[in-house]
Specification:
Number of strands: 6
Shape: globular
Strand order of the largest sheet: 2-1-6-5-4-3
CATH architecture: Roll
Distance between the termini: 19 Å
Order of helices and strands: HHEEHHEEEEH
Length: 124
């Protein structure tokens, strides 16, 4: 479920299967939203499937590390759009939280240290 969320491919792949794994009250900060908050399943799905940001985005998950029963530190190699134009490539990290068996909260970080600090700081 988390792999499908982060590795989604826009070109011809239906987002519907991913949509069903997203909590209706989702709160996500994604690369395809330039890290800006998205609220609700519909907003997340729209960001995943439309626009320049979604077209440029590609990711390959490298690792999942479960930090507790509902939070994963997920790392991936990703290509993503930059706000000022162009794109970047590198390793990125997400804190993924599940609620009711669905993906509820996702926050993206450019370093593992930042992600671990956010988790340790109790902001998860």
């Amino acid at each position: 479920m988390l792999r499908a969320m982060h590795e989604h491919v826009k070109a011809g792949d239906p987002i519907g299967a991913i949509a069903s794994t997203i909590h209706p009250d989702a709160e996500m900060q994604l690369l395809v939203s330039l890290g800006k908050p998205l609220r609700g399943r519909d907003a997340v799905v729209a960001a995943l499937e439309t626009g320049r940001l979604a077209t440029i985005y590609r990711a390959e998950v490298l690792r999942f590390e479960w930090l507790d029963d509902h939070t994963s530190l997920t790392s991936a190699t990703a290509r993503y759009a930059l706000e000022q134009g162009g794109h970047a490539e590198g390793t990125v990290y997400w804190l993924d939280e599940l609620r009711d068996g669905l993906i509820w909260r996702v926050r993206v970080f450019r370093s593992e240290r930042e992600a671990r600090q956010a988790y340790a700081g109790g902001t998860n």
